[in-house]
Amino acid sequence: MSSIIDVTLPHTSYNIVISPNTLEDVGNHLTSLQLGKKILVISNPEVFNHYGETVINSLNKAGFKVFYHLIPAGETYKTLESISQVYDVALKHRLERSSTLLALGGGVIGDMTGFAAATWLRGINFVQVPTSLLAMVDASMGGKTGVNHPQGKNLIGAFYQPRLVFIDPMVLKTLPIREFRAGMAEVIKYGVIWDQDLFQQLEAEKKLDSLENIDLEVMDKIITKSCQAKVDVVSQDEKEAGIRAILNYGHTIGHALESLTGYSQINHGEAVAIGMAVAGKIAVKLGMWQEGKTERQDNLIKKAALPSTFDNKLKSPEILDSLQLDKKVKAGKVRFILPTDIGQVEIRESISSEVITTVLEEIKIK
């Protein structure tokens, strides 16, 4: 059964369509958007091998002229060099302002495709067809696009909204289990920051570590609730002037860990899981919430087979230095999103280095 979430923003609106077993219908959904005939599909070889033919056939049947370009999988390819290659292909096929870039893949492909769409000819159409859980519940909506700088994640980017997000949860069947778990970190995040009912639904599940261990109807509900949570927040604050910052729960420390490990040792979801564990313990030390609620959060992290500790080879001073390079730093102060209850968080600045260091030392693998 399909569900549609309407995203209404000051200058644009679009739909998030969640429709199991309907990937072959994506072309029909695009016909109503009054797009130009040319569509350039951006994907990676692994995803394209599974779903490229289905998507391209669907677009062709709907009357579009389709091209494709593949970028190797992984954060290490989320660079300006990869974007330059997309520009080259766009130029080769004479993409116009009415043309469309379609992202078929996970968060990395979505972020890069969106950034390329935002900057080619000062902005062309952009469609998201996410294939990872992380992209479905987080990266594919909200308009954040960009690439990494060697010294920091997503430091180069733009806010640019898609024309459509089309989600077929059944494509998760081919998602590597580690990537499924990475997406579950973002789902847990929504439960902590916004949706108490979602948090309790996750607690009711015996396991959250693979698609096989979750009923498909429940999975659809988890995806829909997560998407709705993000839409609720982004609709209030499109460009992160205020409340949208709460979506960065777990990301402050998480981004630092990703950067310090060269985006190759731990993936985004694993880093966010560790970041949530750190944030929860900081909140307890500051008297903002109770130890028992931190344990409930950490139990969900464990249930999803995600880490809540990190390698002691990473030194606390290095992590503190990396925090200063985070794009969320304001007037030299690192912002932390800290929980006050299940479903509620606060934005806090000026958390002392001593408190951060103490928590980091506590959760390191000894």
Salient structural properties:
seven-stranded mixed sheet, alpha/beta, 2 domains, metal-binding, Dehydroquinate synthase-like, alpha domain, 366 residues, globular, DHQS/DOIS_N, two-stranded antiparallel ribbon, 3-dehydroquinate synthase activity, single chain, Rossmann fold, cytoplasm
Secondary structure topology:
Blueprint lengths: L2 E6 L4 E6 L7 H6 L6 E6 L1 H17 L3 E6 L9 H13 L7 E6 L1 H13 L5 E6 L2 H7 L4 E6 L2 E8 L4 E4 L9 H17 L2 H9 L11 H21 L14 H10 L7 H18 L5 H13 L12 H8 L12 E6 L2 E5 L4 H11 L3
Parallel strand pairs: 2-9, 3-4, 3-5, 5-6, 6-9
Antiparallel strand pairs: 1-2, 7-8, 10-11
Helix pairs in contact: 3-4, 4-5, 5-6, 5-8, 6-7, 6-8, 6-10, 9-10, 9-12, 10-11, 10-13
Subcellular location: Cytoplasm
GO molecular function: 3-dehydroquinate synthase activity; metal ion binding; nucleotide binding
Function: Catalyzes the conversion of 3-deoxy-D-arabino-heptulosonate 7-phosphate (DAHP) to dehydroquinate (DHQ).
What does this structure look like?
The protein is α/β, with parallel strands linked by helices and 366 residues long. 45% of the residues lie in helices and 18% in strands. Pathway: Metabolic intermediate biosynthesis; chorismate biosynthesis; chorismate from D-erythrose 4-phosphate and phosphoenolpyruvate: step 2/7.
